[in-house]
Every structure is written in structure tokens, then in C-alpha cells.
From TrEMBL:
Species of origin: Thermosporothrix hazakensis
Protein name: Iron complex transport system substrate-binding protein
GO CC terms in record: outer membrane-bounded periplasmic space
Family the entry assigns: Belongs to the bacterial solute-binding protein 8 family.
UniProt signal peptide: 1-26
Length: 314
């Protein structure tokens, strides 16, 4: 009889215990419910993890601005020899998750990111795959570099640093513009180009270095530049007709793998040699690292520093 009562008492105790445990589990919110917060980007609210310790960057432009804010992702894109050399010192612990066009999803999974930040050119198919791994935020093609930089500041709680960097940039622009107004340099024709796939490529007047030159500092824009809507090739004969006073030229072997002698061939060409900037030794070759991305705070600052040093104050 005593044994029977003992068993009944044990069963009751176990029942209460399981009931309490079950009730406690049901009452607790899921980790996802506990760890979300909201940031605003281009007028839309985006939910992200409240605590972000491990971030994967997809796209070189996201890397640049993360470095500018002192953030090292656990994973990001690299070139064949590793991170771009101008960022390498800041990315010593970052693991490669692919390159410009391909992402290694297995590596991304192994890094267990809290958040993935993707650049504007990441394809919808890639975004869908990334979203299955971790919450993913993508830059918009419609966004300006300031908006993307501000978004990163909100994501990583670096708002004060972002405001400080933007304020310093605006002051530097104002000072450079004032200096130009006091000189005749504002009348110079400045042309930006990159040597890509063996040819000369030019860009729209609102893109990267051109945006600083024409829209922020007020340099003269030729009719040819005003018509450029996207990256396009510029024939040498047309370059000779524009005949710029200063040329800002970027050349990277990585972007000319099939024609590594492209720059030397151009420099030997009589048409190139006849351009005013070439004759007057005013070709600014790789004064900004040729692999720096456009539409980033990092890139804008690097370009503005170069323009101030090589044109405004020279």
C-alpha cells in the first residue's frame, strides 16, 4: 500500500513539473522576437537584429564604408590576391566569401552572421539565398552615397560618427569651392576616365569623382560629359577634340587582364600624346586608387582629398 502511494505521489510530482516546464517555454518569446529593432532607409522601415556582432558584407562598396566606420566584417568579397590593397590593413581577420560577381554560400553559412549587408548590384536571386542564411539588408540603386552611409551608421549605432564625417566632408567641399572661386582654376577642363578592357571609359556627371568636380566644386562640364548617361567608351579621337587641361586616370591590371599593356599602348599613341593634359604633364594617374568604388563615403572622401591636393592647392 505504501509502495502504491509512493508511486502515485511521484507521478503527480512529475506531472506538475512537466506542466510548469511546458508553461514556462510557451510563455517565453522566441529569440527573433526579442532581438529585433527598426531602422529607416529611403522612407521605409527595415527590421534588423538588435545585437549585431557578426556581419558579412556582399559587395566592395559595403566594405569601404564599413572600414570608414571602423567595422571589420567576419566575411566579405576579395580579389584573387585577397582584399583590395587600400583596405587590406583593416580587414586582416575577414574571411573571403567570394568576389565581385560570385558568392560562396557555404562560407557565408559557416560564418554564422547576425546580419548580411549587400550592395546595390547584388542580384535578386543572390538576395533570396542570403535571406535564408541571415537577415539581409541591401543598398538601393536609387540611393545616394550619403543615404547608404547613414544607413550603415544606423545599423551599427555609429550615428554620431557618420554625422561627424559628413560634416567634415561638407566643410572641406566649401573650403575647396571658395579657393577655386578666388583663382582661375575653375575654368580648367577636367576629365575623369578609367582604362578598362583596353579602352577609355567615361562616366555620368553625377557619378563619383565627376559629381564632386561638376556639381559640388563647379568645374566646367563639356557637352560630351553632359550627355553621358552611363559608363561608356570614349574614342581617342573624341578625347583629342575635348582636349582637357587635366585628366584624372585610373588604371588597374585587374580590370585589364586581357590587355595588360593597354595603358602603355595609349601612352605611345600620337593622339594621346597630343592632348593638352598629356603635353603639360597634368595626367593624374592613379592618384585615387583605381579599385575604389563610386557611390561610397570612403570613395568620395578619397577623391575629394586628391582633388584638393592635386588641383585646388597646386
Amino acid at each position: 500500500m505504501i509502495q502504491k502511494k509512493t508511486w502515485l505521489l511521484l507521478i503527480c510530482c512529475l506531472g506538475v513539473l512537466f506542466s510548469a516546464c511546458g508553461g514556462s517555454t510557451a510563455a517565453q518569446p522566441t529569440p527573433k522576437e526579442e532581438q529585433k529593432r527598426t531602422v529607416t532607409y529611403l522612407g521605409k522601415e527595415i527590421q534588423i537584429p538588435a545585437k549585431i556582432d557578426r556581419t558579412v558584407a556582399v559587395g566592395y562598396s559595403t566594405l569601404e564604408d564599413m572600414v570608414l566606420l571602423g567595422i571589420e566584417p567576419v566575411g566579405g568579397p576579395t580579389y584573387p590576391n585577397g582584399p583590395a590593397e587600400y583596405l587590406a590593413d583593416h580587414l586582416k581577420n575577414m574571411k573571403s566569401v567570394g568576389n565581385r560577381t560570385e558568392t560562396n554560400y557555404e562560407t557565408v553559412i559557416s560564418l554564422k552572421p547576425d546580419l548580411i549587408v549587400a550592395h546595390e548590384r547584388t542580384t535578386p536571386e543572390t538576395i533570396k539565398k542570403l535571406q535564408k542564411i541571415a537577415p539581409t539588408v541591401q543598398f538601393s540603386k536609387q540611393a545616394k552615397w550619403r543615404e547608404n552611409f547613414t544607413l550603415l551608421g544606423d545599423i551599427f549605432n555609429k550615428q554620431a560618427q557618420v554625422k561627424q564625417i559628413l560634416a567634415a566632408y561638407d566643410t572641406q567641399v566649401a573650403d575647396a569651392k571658395a579657393a577655386l572661386q578666388r583663382s582661375d582654376k575653375k575654368e580648367l577642363v577636367v576629365l575623369t576616365m578609367k582604362i578598362r578592357a583596353g579602352g577609355i571609359s567615361v562616366f555620368p556627371p553625377t557619378f563619383y569623382i565627376n559629381d564632386i568636380l561638376y556639381n559640388e566644386l563647379g568645374f566646367k562640364m563639356t557637352s560630351d560629359m553632359a550627355r553621358v548617361k552611363a559608363q561608356e567608351k570614349l574614342p581617342l579621337e573624341r578625347l583629342a577634340q575635348i582636349n582637357p587641361d587635366i585628366m584624372i586616370v585610373g588604371f588597374s591590371p585587374f580590370e585589364n587582364a586581357d590587355k595588360p599593356q593597354a595603358l602603355e599602348d595609349l601612352q605611345k599613341n600620337p593622339i594621346w600624346q597630343g592632348v593638352k593634359a598629356v603635353k603639360n604633364n597634368r595626367v593624374l594617374l592613379n592618384k585615387v586608387h583605381p579599385l575604389i568604388q563610386g557611390n561610397t563615403a570612403y570613395g568620395q572622401k578619397a577623391a575629394l582629398d586628391m582633388i584638393e591636393k592635386e588641383i585646388v592647392n597646386k
